Amino acid sequence: MTTLHPNRKNKSNMKNSLVALICWLLYAQMAGAQTSYSLQSPDGRLQFAFNLSAQGSMDYSISYLQQPIVLTSALGVNGWDKGLALSATSRTQFDTIWTPVYGERRTVRDHYNAMAITMTLNKNERRKLQLQVRAYNEGIALRYLFLEHPEGGNDITIEKEYTAFTMPAGTKAWFTDHAQGAYQLMPLAKWPGASERPLTMQLPGGQYVSIGEAAMVDYSRTKLVLDTLQANTIRCSMYDRVELTTPFATPWRVIMAAEKPTELLANNDIYLNLNEPGKIENTHWIKPGKVMREITLSTKGAKGLIDFAVKRHLQYIHFDAGWYGYEYIKASDASRVNVDPRRNPKNDLDLPEVIRYAKSKGIGVWLYVNQRALEQQLDKLLPLYQSWGVAGIKFGFVHVGSHRWTTWLHEAIRKCAQYQLMVDVHDEYRPTGFSRTYPNLLTQEGVRGNEEMPDANNNTVLPFTRFLCGPADYTICYYHRPSLKARLAETQNARVLKTTSAHQMALATVYYSPLQFMYWYDKPEDSQDEPELEYFDNVPTVWDDTRVIDGAIGEFVTVARQSGNNWFVGTITNNNAREVKIPLSFLDAGKKYMANIYYDDPQSAVRTKVSIKRMEVDNKTILNASLLPSGGQAIWIQEK
Predict the structure, then answer these.
(1) The pLDDT of residue 337
(2) Is 400 helix (H, G, I), strand (E, B) or coil?
(3) What is the reported pLDDT for 28?
(4) What angle do CA 535, 474, 393 make, to 5 degrees?
(5) What is the per-residue pLDDT for 152?
(6) Mean local confidence (pLDDT), 204-231
(7) If pLDDT is split at 50, 70 and 90, which confidence band does 138 have?
């Protein structure tokens, strides 16, 4: 046996190698070190995982029912995406029930587990970022809070948000690139532009996920785009940069998750819960209701509409564009009546007399005002309209997206509240839950409604996409009378109403809007007092409870809503005929009810081709609905 005796040189080399190996192992350990935290929803079904790498970059992932629904994805904003170091963490639990001024249900539960992770940027105690995360049973919400230093705030400019959502391969999304656009079911590839929010997706494992934005009040709108470098990854895309002074928080990024698409709609209170509580102390003047627009812009026409509103149990009439002149001309003065001669050459609208007459009949009056006039005259118009007795203003053609106009719009809504004026915002504005804070914002457009003459396929997508983030002013029709402009264009692009009368009737229940426009393309003389109008007469616009009974995106949906002892049920199908079962298990056990069923009937002698069937039901009843292509069915259930 031979023993080797290393010389001094060999000993030195071995020592150096050992030191090098130890240093390398320590470096590798440090380089791979990361700080990790997790947060579960109260029911344990959703789990959020957070990682902060040794280089100070953040990422996260989300699992639902132990299945990954958002894979490891980036977090951060420009300048705050690396070099972050942990400073502190905290956890809280929150569970309360609050009562809205109005809503889809009488009370709302706000229940979540929360985690706040505070980090310094480049070890600078004056520059701190806090990632705030809430885990609801309905979804995960996260945002960035830029903290103020005790010695004063810092000016922060945000041009890009790096929050990403890497989805499982095979995910498909219901895509539209603008708020009033049509939806397409597309893979996460080759999108023609940026997606509107909420973005609802169907995962290959059968789950449903919807990405949205809440509490976007003093900030820049964020849409969603595909990452050009990473497959199946969606990134935030800000409209423009934001310049603010700490402390301030970004809007919430909302990731809802569900086993069925109906659960998404049933859980849409998450948007309200992510906004501040109400700021209006006295809310007695905020009164939701049904409204019909006045298109003659004349005293005689307006009084005739008021009489029709009384007869048909509407609460408001609305003067549309043109009552103060041509809305696009800067010189048009919204503080006085000056009817656009193209609408009424006689200019014989006595607005004070109309408002007086309306009040004597218990009817309120709304006025349309283009943003051009609002921007120039807002502080003059609001006290003036209050003195006239105006109930509310419909903002027209508002600018949306930019930090400047987003801030202006929400400040205008706040000012309207000071003068007890309700608001309906039209065109591309989509809600993010601000109506919880300022409930004088009753509704908004931001939807492909009847002004666009959509087909029934569109209407069966909307409940699971657009209506997740809040009410929409869809403008319900009935007598199939599109505008003159639409009729003239009919031969070119078929701009005619593409659904049945019963479909339109059901929308009054399926679609939630505290201010619900009825008979959009109709005039009082179009009505022949059809028997089925009793449904429109009695259906309210706000509710004590809401149940999403059944549905599939782009195919059909059934929604039941309660008001007092009455229930109203709306069912619509897409362009295809369909047999639908409607269980009435939501009714109180042991009680008997009378169901008034309004359905499409091609054999009906009534010109609207809607018939009525009345039958006794209880909570064990299962109704069968045979829906025509593009059709629907409405049910009014009264306790006996």
Answers:
(1) 97
(2) coil
(3) 41
(4) 100
(5) 84
(6) 97
(7) very high
Q: What is the DSSP string of 239-255?
A: SS-EEEESSEEPPEEEE
Length of the chain: 640
Q: Cβ of 340: how many Cβ atoms within 10 Å? A: 18
The region that residue 389 occupies, defined by phi over 0 for left and psi between -120 and 50 for alpha, beta otherwise, is: left
Domain ranges of the chain: 33-273
| Residue with tokens 């200019």, as numbered in its chain | 347
What is the strand order of the sheet 222-226 is part of? Answer: 34-40, 46-53, 58-64, 67-74, 164-166, 233-238, 222-226
- With b for 16 or more beta-carbon neighbours within 10 A and e for fewer, the 256-274 pattern comes to bbbebbbebbbbbbbbbbb
User: What is the C-alpha to C-alpha distance for residues 448 and 179, in angstroms, rounded to an integer?
Assistant: 7
Retrieve residue 591's tokens. Answer: 């009680």
Q: Is the Cβ–Cβ distance between 243 and 152 less than 8 Å?
A: no
Query: What secondary structure letter does DSSP report for 195?
Result: B
pLDDT at 153: 85
Give the residues across from 402 on adjacent strands: none
pLDDT at 378 over 50: yes
Q: What are the residues facing 70 on neighbouring strands? A: 62
Torsion 424-426-429-431 (CA) sign:
positive
Q: Which residue has the higher pLDDT, 360 or 9?
A: 360
Quote the tokens at residue 304: 């005739």
Tokens of 562: 């309660």
**Considering only CA atoms, which of 45, 67, 50 is closest in space to residue 117?**
50
The amino acid occupying position 268 is N
d(CA 616, CA 633): 17
Encoded tokens for 296: 């003659």
| N- to C-terminal Cα separation, the chain | 106
Tokens at 544, concatenated: 């004590």
Domain 33-273: give its CATH code.
2.70.98.10
575, pLDDT greater than 50: yes
The backbone region for 338, taken as left when phi is positive above 0, alpha when psi lies in -120 to 50, beta otherwise, is: beta
Q: Among 15-19, 191-195, 362-366, 429-433, whose mean pLDDT is lowest? A: 15-19
